[in-house]
Write a structure and sequence with these properties.
six-stranded mixed β-sheet; about 30% helix
């Protein structure tokens, strides 16, 4: 592969910067190689994406009922605007999802719908064109969505452009997750629709992907009870009758407000990790045999969060993982109890906990801070609850080929295990050094950043006050920039007037959280993990 000129310029700049720095400040060779390879991949991906906006415009011209931005949001949710080309030589049994193709991530059978073949027929092109050609791929997806929209409107189809909120039923029909229509399958389809509309509502402007945010009212897109489920911090899912319902008492337990007695029924019991949504895999896809739970294996889904939920509930899948994490906001779903054996790592299932991450290993831009932070919080919890030493996590480079590492490394990637030669996830762009730091609460922060631990989820605000909430900083290890004096936050005898400027896990950069949530320091103190006073802003 030839080096893109812009990547070469950026790489040269990185080398010059390293040369100018003092020897003590120089990054390791592995860190430099990681940044160079990632930069090169992002630049090449951005160059490839340059033609996509024109393809999307032509698709809207052919299918004028589709509201602008919808196709772009679908592509971002499914592939991150990457033209996906699965290896045809790979054994399907080694995959954790049916293969998907192209910018839109269209399925081609293998347990899910044949979106490639159906879309090709609708646009008058061959299946191979839909697989190989990005414009044909986008056009096929537009045709499938237009057909789903017509079906959802019945005999009263309007000739006007649909409102984005009205697409939720069509998006659920489009999802391609097979014929099952039970409660759990319906929830997976609704999750897909929610993910697309949430992307459209938030917007994206990064690495050549531009989706203009829209002021959507999701209350119009989903029934109130559906939306509660999609947004809820805690659900009860009954595997016996296929029901999914909000459990307000359990939500309060997760939030730390109450402590419930343990439930006896595993089919409706909550989760092993308090943040997670409990949404069980099909009993055909995991074993109830005992799991020693002495190691953690990280995966990428090679598909979407909603698609993985649907696939692990498909009895024919013969695959599962304990946890799935959504890229957009770090939402965590548990599908197999930790003490059972999920089928995710061949001969290593009897002692490992598997964590699937939304997206694809080959995507250099896949690793959102929300997903990484959620993954690290989950793994830190496993270390504390299951006696795994977080210091044994891999702290070297990632790989785009199978690369065996010693058994003493107890937190590592799928592609670092024996007997898993056909996998390399989570891939060469997974930031292992950063992940190690998140797990072990230390390391040297970047200039102007100070590492702190928080003992609970903290609401972020626009100002050093509780007037304008913006999002959430999750419990765990984070960086902050500086402190400022503001409104007192008090619980009993504990209080703090200091506020910390930081970037939220869910919400914007540069927000404020109360120093009350710091794990190690007392009233009106704001120190980092090393004990140093955080400077004033």
């Amino acid at each position: 592969m030839h080096l893109h000129p812009l990547a070469a310029v950026i790489g040269g700049a990185l080398c010059l910067a390293v040369g100018a720095a003092g020897a003590a400040e120089r990054p390791s060779l592995d860190s430099l190689r990681f940044e160079f390879d990632r930069t090169q991949a992002l630049v090449l991906a951005q160059a490839q994406r340059a033609a996509y906006p024109a393809y999307f415009r032509r698709a809207y011209a052919r299918y004028p009922n589709l509201p602008a931005g919808t196709l772009e949001a679908m592509a971002y949710a499914e592939t991150g605007w990457n033209h996906v080309r699965p290896d045809p030589a790979q054994d399907p049994h080694d995959l954790h999802m049916p293969r998907s193709y192209g910018v839109m991530g269209l399925y081609h059978g293998g347990g899910f719908a044949d979106q490639v073949g159906e879309g090709a027929r609708l646009i008058g092109r061959t299946a191979q064109q839909v697989i190989d050609d990005p414009e044909s791929n986008i056009l096929a997806a537009a045709a499938l969505l237009d057909r789903a929209l017509a079906a959802s409107q019945g005999g009263t189809r309007s000739r006007a452009v649909a409102r984005s909120e009205d697409l939720a039923p069509a998006l659920a029909r489009y999802a391609g997750y097979g014929a099952s229509d039970g409660g759990l399958a319906a929830y997976a389809r609704q999750s897909f629709a929610f993910g697309v509309l949430d992307t459209l509502q938030r917007g994206v402007d990064a690495q050549g992907v531009r989706i203009v945010p829209q002021a959507l009212q999701l209350e119009r897109a989903f029934a109130p009870e559906q939306l509660r489920k999609l947004r809820a911090p805690a659900l009860r899912v009954d595997a016996a009758d296929g029901s999914v319902r909000v459990d307000d008492a359990f939500a309060r337990e997760v939030a730390g407000e109450v402590r419930l007695a343990p439930a006896g029924d595993v089919s409706t019991k909550a989760v092993d990790f308090g943040e997670a949504i409990w949404n069980p895999a099909s009993s055909s896809n995991y074993s109830t045999a005992g799991n020693a739970m002495s190691a953690v294996i990280l995966h990428t889904m090679e598909g979407s969060y909603a698609g993985s939920i649907a696939w692990f509930q498909n009895p024919s899948a013969q695959v599962s993982a304990h946890y799935l994490i959504r890229k957009s906001d770090g939402q965590i779903t548990q599908m197999v109890r930790e003490h059972h054996q999920a089928w995710h790592a061949k001969y290593h299932n009897n002692y490992t906990v598997g964590i699937e991450h939304d997206g694809r290993a080959a995507d250099a831009g896949n690793w959102s801070s929300a997903m990484l932070n959620a993954s690290a919080r989950l793994t830190k919890s496993l270390c504390a609850r299951r006696g795994i030493d977080c210091r044994t996590a891999w702290n070297g480079p990632g790989y785009d080929t199978w690369h065996l590492v010693p058994d003493s490394v107890r937190i590592k990637g799928h592609g670092m295990l024996s007997q898993n030669q056909n996998r390399y996830d989570p891939g060469k762009y997974f930031p292992w050094t950063n992940y190690y730091t998140l797990l072990n609460g230390g390391g040297t922060p970047s200039p102007g950043k100070y590492w702190v631990d928080t003992f609970a989820d903290a609401t972020g605000y626009k100002w050093p006050s509780t007037l304008t909430p913006l999002g959430t900083l999750y419990k765990g290890t984070h960086y902050v920039y500086c402190k400022a004096w503001g409104q007192e936050v008090r619980v009993g005898d504990s209080y703090n007037h200091y506020w910390l400027k930081t970037d939220l896990d869910v919400g914007p950069a540069g927000a404020w959280v109360s120093a009350y949530y710091l794990s190690r320091w007392g009233n009106d103190e704001a120190r980092d993990n090393s004990g140093a006073v955080i400077p004033d802003c």
